[in-house]
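Worked example 2:
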Amino acid sequence: YIVEKPDWCTVTVSPNFLKVKATSEGLTENVSLIVKVDENAHARSIGKIGIKVEVDNMGAIKGGTFHSNISFMPGFYPLLNLNIPDGTVKKIGPLDTAKFDIEIENMGNAKTIVICDVLDLPEGWVVSVDKETLIGTGTISDNPKKTVSLVVQPPYGFGYHNDREIIQVSITPTYFDDPSITGEKYLVSFT
């Protein structure tokens, strides 16, 4: 029987009933403990599962009730939702700048550092974006949303220009408590 478990997981035992014969050598049987962790389980929080085993009397062998606790920790679940409300294409003059707002929502289960990198910057163009941004998580009632701005300025030179460049930004979620744990990169292209 499962007698205790965190609210943020589902636990089952399979099989939950065993019928065995008593032997003089003893007998070992295995059962599986199946744990399904929900999305709202905060990363690295300690979960405790209480198990109760009842053994019936078998002839001269007296049965009993046994209790055990199993502890476990959910891992980091890196998941972002990206939204660019004003679109990814802007037309600007040589001395103008284009500003793209990237709304980032942390759908994961821990505070997350979001790392933004500009890939293959076109020659002469100036691009700035916040390198690192800390975003809270809804699993512990933090604000899970932040807006990061990408600012782009084209090169300036004499004569007519009709340059069209694609600027790609990679956005990588990393675990706040251990930056070596990262999620998949998200790629966004701006024109």
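The mean pLDDT is 91. Residues 44 and 83 are 28 Å apart (CA to CA).
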